[in-house]
UniProtKB/TrEMBL annotation:
Domain Peptidase M28: from-to ranges: 268-477
Top EC class for this record: hydrolase
The protein's name in its UniProt record: Peptide hydrolase
PA domain location: 157-240
Keyword Ubl conjugation (UniProt): no
GO molecular function: aminopeptidase activity; metal ion binding; metalloexopeptidase activity
Length: 521
């Protein structure tokens, strides 16, 4: 196998943005030229039809762990630039991850059409920050994702000025905000809107405080001209300042953020079976990138590698319906890769995707078997059937499960918004395992499912191989079931799809607060 570095470089050469899967540009590699005939391969049609138990039998924990070790070594390629192993977009570690995905599939080009989808992603870094309110450092304060820096990347000073209502209208910002620091309640509109309106009102910085006691780990999303340096603040920390302001007191404040927001060229990787009904596709995906803070072996190396293992195993079988695997880029920046993919699909291409299954974090060390609670009354019809597929499989294998909110935290979000039924499983992130969950799944109550979530220690010691193997077998089951037949699964039509995309968007957004790992509202 050629070196990963050379594959990565060749794989990223000469790509341009595309608008739909039908015109995606194949990944270039000297050993792969889609414009010339392929060498002779066994006739895929002579393979046995995929069967769930047979496909599951090809999944082992040892294979997954072996791939995890490769992925960690790939993340270490970024140490010279970042001072730590990472697979964040724009890093050598992420470019090499993309190359590794391709290299794992290159022997199966007779079975899969492998293509890339380049796009420009917004990436932000915060180097240093500080918020001082009434001479006290606000410990819970954290810069919003994709926040611009304070002016000249220097501290700015002013008084803390309360904004009316939730700061969603220009009229909510009193003239006193100009030259001072806006104090805005979370809710009713996106953090982006609040930052933009505060900037238009002349504020030098903004602080969005929570209506709940906890902190606000939010993002401003795509930059707009009037965004200003913006912090999130916990509701418990905000309370005393709200009381002081209500009593007419003046609160001096200092805000400082040294940050940069830039554009990174990156790409999604798509592998679709050549066999099967090309107008009725089973689609599944996971994200290929990590946060900058660490190597991301569980988040989402586990999903990335599970998809590779299932894709390789599937080549031993033929399928009735096409199967499309996706490795999304820039999920950690706000689901940018999956959003770009779904936003650029034509209506006809959208219709070909019968369902989408999201696999993000399948191996958390203090795991719970989590199923997204996707219901048809607020999601495209068919989402609940996916939920029930996972529930039935866990039940049949004598395993407990728990439902988690279907709230926009991963790459299924864009599919739901565009009328495509979706679902998925996970094993937990920063949330705390309850006593009842410890009884059901083992592990330790009162401790996060993944204590190394978004941290340097998300390495090969941070995966529960038992949970990972079990969940990857479930991934295989989900592929095998629908690769054979969509019997009983709701049909998709263009008219129905349009109605779903519009009608469900309103219902969905009422319960959706996340866009990726960060809050946006």
């Amino acid at each position: 196998m050629p070196g990963l570095k050379s594959i990565a470089l060749n794989g990223l050469v000469g790509m341009s943005v595309v608008s739909a899967i039908a015109v995606q540009k194949p990944i270039y590699h000297p050993d792969l030229d889609v414009d010339v005939p392929y060498p002779p391969y066994p006739d895929v049609n002579l393979l046995p039809l995929v069967e769930t138990e047979a496909l599951q039998d090809k999944i082992t924990g040892n294979k997954l762990l072996r791939r995890a070790k490769h992925l960690f070594n790939i993340a270490k390629r970024s140490e010279a630039e970042y001072g730590r192993p990472t697979r964040v977009i724009g890093s050598v570690g992420h470019a090499s991850t993309i190359a590794y995905i391709y290299a794992s599939l290159q022997s199966f080009k007779h079975y899969y059409k492998i293509s890339s989808q380049p796009f420009n992603a917004v990436n932000g870094k915060v180097y240093e920050s500080r918020l001082v309110l009434d001479n006290d450092v606000a410990e819970s304060a954290s810069p919003m994702g994709l926040t611009p820096p304070t002016k000249d990347k220097q501290p700015v000073y002013g008084n803390l000025i309360a904004v009316a209502n939730n700061g969603c209208d220009a009229e909510d910002y009193p003239k006193e905000v100009s030259g001072n620091i806006a104090f805005i309640k979370r809710g009713d509109c996106a953090f982006s809107t609040k930052s933009e309106l505060a900037g238009k009102a002349g504020a030098v910085a903004a602080v969005v405080y929570n209506y709940e006691s906890g902190p606000v780990a939010g993002t401003l999303g795509t930059p707009v001209p009037n965004h200003i340096a913006t912090f999130g603040l916990s509701g418990s920390d905000a309370q005393k300042y709200l009381e002081q302001l209500a009593d007419g007191e003046t609160i001096p404040a200092t805000a400082y953020i040294d940050s940069v927001v830039d554009i990174v060229e990156t790409l999604n990787v798509i592998a679709q079976t050549r066999g099967g009904d090309q107008d009725n596709c089973v689609m599944l995906g996971g994200h290929s990138d990590s946060v900058e803070a660490g190597p991301g072996i569980n988040d989402d190396g586990s999903g990335t590698l599970s998809l590779i293992e299932v894709a390789v195993a599937l080549t031993n079988f033929k399928v009735n319906n096409c199967v499309r695997f996706a490795w999304w880029s820039a999920e950690e920046e706000g689901l940018l890769g999956s959003d770009h993919y779904i936003d650029t699909l034509s209506a006809e291409e959208n219709k070909k995707i019968r369902l989408f299954m999201d696999y993000d974090m399948l191996a958390s060390p203090n795991f719970a078997y989590q199923v997204y609670d996707a219901r048809d009354n607020v999601n495209p019809v068919g989402s609940q059937a996916l939920r029930d597929l996972y529930v039935d499989w866990y039940t049949e294998h004598g395993l407990n499960y728990t439902f988690i909110p279907f709230d926009g935290r991963s790459d299924y979000d864009g599919f739901i918004r565009h009328g495509i039924p979706a679902g998925g499983i996970a094993t937990g992130a920063e949330g705390i395992k309850t006593a009842s969950e410890a009884d059901a799944f083992g592990g330790e109550a009162g401790v996060p499912y993944d204590v190394c979530y978004h941290s340097l220690c998300d390495n090969i010691q941070n995966v529960n191989v038992t949970a990972w193997e079990i969940n990857t077998k479930l991934v295989a089951h989900s592929v095998a079931k629908y690769a054979v037949s969509f019997e009983g699964f709701p049909e998709r039509t263009l008219n129905n799809n349009i109605n779903l995309a519009v009608d469900n968007k309103n219902s969905y957004e009422k319960t959706t607060k996340h866009h990726g790992s960060k809050l946006f509202i």
